[in-house]
Amino acid sequence: MQQKKVEQLLKQHDIKPSYHRIKILSYLLEKKNHPTADMIYQELVKEIPTLSKTTVYNTLNLFVEKNVAIIITIDENETRYDADISLHGHFKCSSCGKIYDIRLNTAGIIPDELEKFQIDESHIYFKGTCPLCLKKALS
Amino acid sequence: MQQKKVEQLLKQHDIKPSYHRIKILSYLLEKKNHPTADMIYQELVKEIPTLSKTTVYNTLNLFVEKNVAIIITIDENETRYDADISLHGHFKCSSCGKIYDIRLNTAGIIPDELEKFQIDESHIYFKGTCPLCLKKALS
DNA sequence: TAATCAAATTTTAATGATTACAAATTTAAA
DNA sequence: TTTAAATTTGTAATCATTAAAATTTGATTA
Ligand SMILES: [Mn+2]
Ligand SMILES: [Mn+2]
Ligand SMILES: [Zn+2]
Ligand SMILES: [Zn+2]
After folding, report:
1. Higher pLDDT, B116 or B106
2. What pTM, to 2 d.p., does this model score?
3. Element containing residue A101 per DSSP (H, E)
4. Which of B3, B23, B45, B71 is surrounded by the fewest CB atoms within 10 Å?
5. Which residues contact A91 (CB under 8 A, 6 or more apart)?
Protein backbone atom coordinates (compact mmCIF):
# COMPACT_ATOMS: atom_id res chain seq x y z
CA MET A 1 0.00 0.00 0.00
CA GLN A 2 1.31 3.43 -0.89
CA GLN A 3 2.03 6.00 1.77
CA LYS A 4 -0.96 8.10 0.66
CA LYS A 5 -3.33 5.20 1.34
CA VAL A 6 -1.84 4.62 4.76
CA GLU A 7 -2.25 8.29 5.63
CA GLN A 8 -5.86 8.10 4.50
CA LEU A 9 -6.47 5.09 6.70
CA LEU A 10 -5.05 6.86 9.73
CA LYS A 11 -7.08 10.00 9.09
CA GLN A 12 -10.24 7.95 8.67
CA HIS A 13 -9.68 6.67 12.18
CA ASP A 14 -8.99 10.08 13.69
CA ILE A 15 -5.26 9.64 13.96
CA LYS A 16 -2.88 12.37 12.86
CA PRO A 17 -0.55 10.70 10.34
CA SER A 18 2.85 11.41 11.80
CA TYR A 19 6.00 9.94 10.29
CA HIS A 20 6.32 7.22 12.91
CA ARG A 21 2.67 6.24 12.77
CA ILE A 22 2.80 5.88 9.01
CA LYS A 23 5.90 3.72 9.29
CA ILE A 24 4.41 1.45 11.93
CA LEU A 25 1.09 1.02 10.19
CA SER A 26 2.84 0.39 6.87
CA TYR A 27 4.89 -2.29 8.57
CA LEU A 28 1.76 -4.04 9.85
CA LEU A 29 -0.04 -3.79 6.53
CA GLU A 30 2.86 -4.95 4.37
CA LYS A 31 4.39 -7.66 6.52
CA LYS A 32 1.11 -9.12 7.75
CA ASN A 33 3.21 -11.11 10.19
CA HIS A 34 1.38 -10.41 13.44
CA PRO A 35 4.48 -8.98 15.07
CA THR A 36 5.25 -8.16 18.66
CA ALA A 37 6.04 -4.56 19.55
CA ASP A 38 9.67 -5.54 19.78
CA MET A 39 9.72 -7.08 16.29
CA ILE A 40 8.42 -3.81 14.87
CA TYR A 41 10.95 -1.83 16.86
CA GLN A 42 13.91 -4.00 15.83
CA GLU A 43 13.00 -3.67 12.17
CA LEU A 44 12.19 0.03 12.07
CA VAL A 45 15.09 1.17 14.23
CA LYS A 46 17.35 0.19 11.33
CA GLU A 47 15.77 2.94 9.22
CA ILE A 48 15.02 5.33 12.07
CA PRO A 49 17.92 5.14 14.52
CA THR A 50 16.32 7.62 16.91
CA LEU A 51 13.15 5.54 17.24
CA SER A 52 12.09 4.80 20.79
CA LYS A 53 10.44 1.56 21.82
CA THR A 54 7.96 3.54 23.90
CA THR A 55 6.80 5.21 20.70
CA VAL A 56 6.09 1.81 19.21
CA TYR A 57 4.05 0.85 22.27
CA ASN A 58 2.24 4.18 22.37
CA THR A 59 1.42 3.97 18.70
CA LEU A 60 0.16 0.40 18.87
CA ASN A 61 -2.02 1.24 21.86
CA LEU A 62 -3.42 4.17 19.91
CA PHE A 63 -4.10 1.95 16.90
CA VAL A 64 -6.00 -0.53 19.05
CA GLU A 65 -7.99 2.23 20.74
CA LYS A 66 -8.91 3.72 17.38
CA ASN A 67 -9.65 0.36 15.78
CA VAL A 68 -6.88 0.46 13.24
CA ALA A 69 -5.39 -2.73 14.66
CA ILE A 70 -6.32 -5.55 16.98
CA ILE A 71 -4.39 -7.44 19.62
CA ILE A 72 -3.75 -11.12 19.09
CA THR A 73 -2.88 -13.11 22.22
CA ILE A 74 -1.96 -16.64 21.35
CA ASP A 75 0.98 -17.28 23.62
CA GLU A 76 1.15 -15.97 27.14
CA ASN A 77 3.29 -12.92 27.67
CA GLU A 78 3.49 -12.18 23.98
CA THR A 79 1.19 -9.49 22.67
CA ARG A 80 0.94 -9.40 18.92
CA TYR A 81 -0.73 -6.94 16.58
CA ASP A 82 -2.74 -7.24 13.38
CA ALA A 83 -3.90 -4.44 11.10
CA ASP A 84 -6.44 -6.79 9.57
CA ILE A 85 -9.39 -5.95 11.79
CA SER A 86 -11.85 -8.24 10.00
CA LEU A 87 -13.12 -11.34 11.77
CA HIS A 88 -10.65 -14.09 10.95
CA GLY A 89 -8.79 -16.84 12.74
CA HIS A 90 -5.14 -17.68 13.28
CA PHE A 91 -2.88 -20.67 13.44
CA LYS A 92 0.46 -20.51 15.21
CA CYS A 93 3.04 -23.13 14.36
CA SER A 94 4.89 -24.21 17.49
CA SER A 95 7.83 -25.25 15.36
CA CYS A 96 8.60 -22.25 13.14
CA GLY A 97 6.56 -19.70 15.06
CA LYS A 98 4.73 -18.40 12.01
CA ILE A 99 1.19 -17.17 12.52
CA TYR A 100 -1.11 -17.96 9.61
CA ASP A 101 -4.35 -16.15 8.84
CA ILE A 102 -7.33 -18.47 8.62
CA ARG A 103 -10.46 -17.41 6.80
CA LEU A 104 -13.54 -18.64 8.63
CA ASN A 105 -17.03 -19.03 7.35
CA THR A 106 -18.32 -16.57 9.87
CA ALA A 107 -21.87 -17.82 9.60
CA GLY A 108 -22.98 -19.58 12.74
CA ILE A 109 -19.78 -18.72 14.54
CA ILE A 110 -21.55 -17.19 17.51
CA PRO A 111 -22.92 -19.88 19.85
CA ASP A 112 -26.63 -19.68 20.74
CA GLU A 113 -25.56 -19.69 24.36
CA LEU A 114 -24.34 -16.12 23.90
CA GLU A 115 -27.68 -14.79 22.69
CA LYS A 116 -28.07 -12.46 25.68
CA PHE A 117 -24.41 -11.41 25.72
CA GLN A 118 -23.11 -8.30 24.04
CA ILE A 119 -20.15 -9.44 21.99
CA ASP A 120 -17.44 -6.90 21.21
CA GLU A 121 -14.67 -9.23 20.05
CA SER A 122 -14.43 -12.78 18.73
CA HIS A 123 -11.17 -14.68 18.68
CA ILE A 124 -10.41 -18.07 17.21
CA TYR A 125 -7.01 -19.61 17.00
CA PHE A 126 -5.25 -22.91 16.75
CA LYS A 127 -1.83 -24.16 17.70
CA GLY A 128 0.13 -27.04 16.26
CA THR A 129 2.53 -27.70 13.41
CA CYS A 130 2.26 -26.20 9.93
CA PRO A 131 2.53 -28.26 6.72
CA LEU A 132 6.02 -26.97 5.96
CA CYS A 133 7.33 -28.02 9.35
CA LEU A 134 5.51 -31.37 9.18
CA LYS A 135 7.27 -32.09 5.89
CA LYS A 136 10.65 -31.11 7.35
CA ALA A 137 10.08 -33.40 10.30
CA LEU A 138 9.73 -36.39 7.98
CA SER A 139 13.07 -36.04 6.24
CA MET B 1 -15.00 -33.57 43.97
CA GLN B 2 -13.60 -35.52 46.91
CA GLN B 3 -9.93 -35.55 47.65
CA LYS B 4 -9.65 -39.20 46.59
CA LYS B 5 -10.91 -38.34 43.10
CA VAL B 6 -8.45 -35.50 42.79
CA GLU B 7 -5.59 -37.77 43.78
CA GLN B 8 -6.76 -40.30 41.20
CA LEU B 9 -6.79 -37.64 38.53
CA LEU B 10 -3.25 -36.58 39.34
CA LYS B 11 -1.99 -40.16 39.35
CA GLN B 12 -3.66 -40.84 36.03
CA HIS B 13 -1.57 -38.04 34.60
CA ASP B 14 1.68 -39.21 36.12
CA ILE B 15 1.79 -36.61 38.84
CA LYS B 16 2.59 -37.53 42.42
CA PRO B 17 -0.33 -36.21 44.48
CA SER B 18 1.39 -34.01 47.01
CA TYR B 19 -0.58 -31.93 49.48
CA HIS B 20 -0.09 -28.70 47.53
CA ARG B 21 -0.89 -30.24 44.19
CA ILE B 22 -4.12 -31.67 45.52
CA LYS B 23 -5.07 -28.29 46.96
CA ILE B 24 -4.34 -26.43 43.75
CA LEU B 25 -6.11 -28.90 41.50
CA SER B 26 -9.09 -28.97 43.88
CA TYR B 27 -9.24 -25.21 43.69
CA LEU B 28 -9.36 -25.30 39.90
CA LEU B 29 -11.96 -28.06 39.79
CA GLU B 30 -14.27 -26.59 42.41
CA LYS B 31 -14.12 -22.89 41.63
CA LYS B 32 -14.11 -23.26 37.85
CA ASN B 33 -13.23 -19.58 37.74
CA HIS B 34 -10.29 -19.65 35.35
CA PRO B 35 -8.01 -18.01 37.90
CA THR B 36 -4.61 -16.44 37.55
CA ALA B 37 -1.73 -17.93 39.50
CA ASP B 38 -2.00 -15.05 41.92
CA MET B 39 -5.70 -15.62 42.55
CA ILE B 40 -4.95 -19.22 43.51
CA TYR B 41 -2.09 -18.13 45.73
CA GLN B 42 -4.10 -15.43 47.51
CA GLU B 43 -6.86 -17.89 48.29
CA LEU B 44 -4.78 -20.86 49.36
CA VAL B 45 -2.27 -18.92 51.42
CA LYS B 46 -5.10 -18.29 53.88
CA GLU B 47 -5.22 -22.00 54.62
CA ILE B 48 -1.54 -22.72 54.05
CA PRO B 49 0.42 -19.76 55.41
CA THR B 50 3.75 -21.24 54.35
CA LEU B 51 2.70 -21.55 50.71
CA SER B 52 5.08 -20.03 48.22
CA LYS B 53 3.93 -18.38 45.02
CA THR B 54 6.69 -20.19 43.18
CA THR B 55 5.04 -23.46 44.15
CA VAL B 56 1.82 -22.29 42.56
CA TYR B 57 3.63 -21.43 39.35
CA ASN B 58 5.61 -24.67 39.36
CA THR B 59 2.50 -26.71 39.97
CA LEU B 60 0.48 -25.00 37.26
CA ASN B 61 3.31 -25.44 34.76
CA LEU B 62 3.41 -29.11 35.68
CA PHE B 63 -0.35 -29.44 35.24
CA VAL B 64 -0.15 -27.92 31.77
CA GLU B 65 2.77 -30.11 30.79
CA LYS B 66 0.92 -33.22 31.97
CA ASN B 67 -2.39 -32.16 30.43
CA VAL B 68 -4.28 -31.79 33.68
CA ALA B 69 -4.98 -28.13 32.90
CA ILE B 70 -4.83 -25.74 30.00
CA ILE B 71 -3.77 -22.13 29.72
CA ILE B 72 -6.36 -19.57 28.76
CA THR B 73 -5.01 -16.29 27.39
CA ILE B 74 -7.78 -13.83 26.83
CA ASP B 75 -6.24 -10.62 28.05
CA GLU B 76 -2.62 -9.77 27.45
CA ASN B 77 -0.32 -10.25 30.40
CA GLU B 78 -2.82 -12.34 32.29
CA THR B 79 -2.34 -16.07 32.16
CA ARG B 80 -5.31 -18.04 33.41
CA TYR B 81 -5.76 -21.73 34.05
CA ASP B 82 -8.58 -24.18 33.49
CA ALA B 83 -8.79 -27.78 34.69
CA ASP B 84 -11.52 -28.43 32.14
CA ILE B 85 -9.35 -29.70 29.30
CA SER B 86 -12.25 -30.47 26.97
CA LEU B 87 -12.77 -28.37 23.86
CA HIS B 88 -14.95 -25.48 24.92
CA GLY B 89 -15.08 -21.72 24.48
CA HIS B 90 -14.98 -18.76 26.83
CA PHE B 91 -16.57 -15.37 27.23
CA LYS B 92 -14.92 -12.69 29.33
CA CYS B 93 -17.05 -9.83 30.53
CA SER B 94 -15.11 -6.57 30.35
CA SER B 95 -17.33 -5.14 33.06
CA CYS B 96 -17.29 -7.69 35.89
CA GLY B 97 -14.30 -9.69 34.70
CA LYS B 98 -16.04 -13.03 34.95
CA ILE B 99 -15.05 -15.71 32.47
CA TYR B 100 -17.95 -17.89 31.34
CA ASP B 101 -17.62 -21.36 29.87
CA ILE B 102 -19.28 -21.69 26.49
CA ARG B 103 -20.27 -25.08 25.14
CA LEU B 104 -19.65 -25.26 21.41
CA ASN B 105 -21.03 -27.68 18.93
CA THR B 106 -17.59 -28.89 18.04
CA ALA B 107 -18.71 -30.28 14.70
CA GLY B 108 -17.29 -28.30 11.83
CA ILE B 109 -15.23 -26.16 14.11
CA ILE B 110 -11.98 -26.87 12.29
CA PRO B 111 -11.74 -24.86 9.06
CA ASP B 112 -11.06 -26.80 5.85
CA GLU B 113 -8.12 -24.50 5.30
CA LEU B 114 -6.30 -26.34 8.11
CA GLU B 115 -6.62 -29.77 6.53
CA LYS B 116 -2.86 -30.17 6.14
CA PHE B 117 -2.05 -28.66 9.55
CA GLN B 118 -1.52 -30.72 12.67
CA ILE B 119 -3.72 -29.12 15.30
CA ASP B 120 -2.74 -29.53 18.94
CA GLU B 121 -4.94 -26.88 20.52
CA SER B 122 -8.10 -24.99 19.57
CA HIS B 123 -9.13 -21.81 21.33
CA ILE B 124 -12.31 -19.82 20.93
CA TYR B 125 -13.23 -16.87 23.06
CA PHE B 126 -15.34 -13.76 23.04
CA LYS B 127 -15.20 -10.47 24.87
CA GLY B 128 -17.99 -8.08 25.68
CA THR B 129 -20.56 -7.54 28.39
CA CYS B 130 -22.46 -10.30 30.18
CA PRO B 131 -26.27 -10.26 30.67
CA LEU B 132 -25.95 -9.40 34.36
CA CYS B 133 -23.82 -6.36 33.65
CA LEU B 134 -26.02 -5.32 30.73
CA LYS B 135 -29.00 -5.31 33.06
CA LYS B 136 -27.13 -3.30 35.68
CA ALA B 137 -26.14 -0.75 33.04
CA LEU B 138 -29.80 -0.06 32.28
CA SER B 139 -30.80 0.90 35.80
C1' DT C 1 9.82 36.31 11.17
C1' DA C 2 9.63 35.24 15.96
C1' DA C 3 6.98 33.76 19.82
C1' DT C 4 3.70 30.47 21.45
C1' DC C 5 1.43 26.28 22.32
C1' DA C 6 -0.06 21.58 21.86
C1' DA C 7 1.04 17.20 20.14
C1' DA C 8 4.42 13.77 19.44
C1' DT C 9 8.51 11.63 20.74
C1' DT C 10 12.25 10.44 23.71
C1' DT C 11 14.53 9.22 27.99
C1' DT C 12 14.70 7.20 32.23
C1' DA C 13 12.68 4.89 35.84
C1' DA C 14 9.03 1.94 37.70
C1' DT C 15 5.90 -1.92 37.69
C1' DG C 16 4.30 -6.54 37.69
C1' DA C 17 4.18 -11.26 36.13
C1' DT C 18 7.00 -15.04 35.59
C1' DT C 19 11.23 -17.64 35.92
C1' DA C 20 15.93 -19.04 37.67
C1' DC C 21 18.49 -20.70 41.15
C1' DA C 22 20.10 -22.35 45.36
C1' DA C 23 18.91 -23.63 50.01
C1' DA C 24 15.81 -25.97 53.03
C1' DT C 25 12.50 -29.36 53.88
C1' DT C 26 9.92 -33.42 53.16
C1' DT C 27 9.27 -37.99 51.34
C1' DA C 28 10.44 -42.42 50.13
C1' DA C 29 13.69 -45.91 49.30
C1' DA C 30 17.66 -48.68 50.82
C1' DT D 1 18.68 -45.06 60.35
C1' DT D 2 20.95 -43.29 56.24
C1' DT D 3 20.69 -41.52 51.91
C1' DA D 4 18.99 -39.85 47.74
C1' DA D 5 15.34 -37.85 45.28
C1' DA D 6 11.48 -34.97 45.05
C1' DT D 7 9.16 -31.06 46.58
C1' DT D 8 8.83 -26.63 48.43
C1' DT D 9 10.56 -22.22 49.76
C1' DG D 10 12.83 -17.59 49.53
C1' DT D 11 15.28 -14.43 47.01
C1' DA D 12 16.94 -12.43 43.10
C1' DA D 13 16.78 -11.88 38.11
C1' DT D 14 14.42 -11.22 33.78
C1' DC D 15 11.48 -9.28 30.49
C1' DA D 16 7.49 -6.93 28.57
C1' DT D 17 4.98 -3.03 29.34
C1' DT D 18 3.74 1.38 31.40
C1' DA D 19 4.44 5.88 33.92
C1' DA D 20 6.24 10.27 34.28
C1' DA D 21 8.91 14.01 33.01
C1' DA D 22 11.82 16.30 29.59
C1' DT D 23 12.61 17.45 24.89
C1' DT D 24 11.54 18.05 20.17
C1' DT D 25 8.55 19.03 16.41
C1' DG D 26 5.32 21.51 13.81
C1' DA D 27 1.52 24.30 13.33
C1' DT D 28 -0.60 28.80 14.71
C1' DT D 29 -0.59 33.38 15.88
C1' DA D 30 1.22 38.02 16.92
MN1 LIG E 1 -4.45 -11.96 11.07
MN1 LIG F 1 -13.34 -23.15 30.84
ZN1 LIG G 1 5.94 -24.20 10.92
ZN1 LIG H 1 -20.34 -8.97 33.68
Report:
1. B116
2. 0.94
3. strand A99-102
4. B3
5. A99, A100, A102, A125, A126, A127, A128, A130, B114, B117, B119
Average pLDDT on A20-26 reads 98
pLDDT of residue A31: 97
Cα(A122)–Cα(B125) distance, integer angstroms? 6
- Does an H or E element contain A25, and which? helix A19-31
Measured between CB atoms, does B57 come within 8 Å of chain A? Answer: no
How deeply is B45 buried, as exposed, middle or buried, from its count of CB atoms within 10 A (0-12, 13-18, 19+)?
A: middle
Is the CB of B123 less than 8 angstroms away from the CB of A119?
no
Q: A119 vs B112, which has greater pLDDT?
A: A119
Mean pLDDT over A61-89 rounds to 97
Q: What does DSSP assign to residue B18?
A: -
Q: Does the structure show a pLDDT above 80 at B118?
A: yes
The yes-or-no verdict on residue A117 having pLDDT over 90 is yes
Q: What CA–CA distance (Å, rounded) separates B85 from B69?
A: 6
Nucleic strand D near CB of residue B59 (< 7 Å): yes
B138 touches chain A (CB under 8 A): no
Inter-residue contact A122 to B89 (CB < 8 Å)? no
Mark yes or no for CB contact A126/B122 under 8 Å: yes
Give residue B138's pLDDT.
Answer: 87
Please give the single-letter amino acid code of residue A80. R
Within 10 angstroms of residue B69's Cβ, the number of other Cβ atoms is 23
CATH superfamily to which B86-138 belongs: Ferric-uptake regulator, C-terminal dimerisarion domain (3.30.1490.190)
User: Is B79 a residue whose pLDDT tops 80?
Assistant: yes
Fold of B3-72: Arc Repressor Mutant, subunit A (1.10.10)
CB neighbours (10 Å) of residue B46?
A: 8
Q: How many CA atoms lie within 13 A of B63 on its CB side?
A: 32
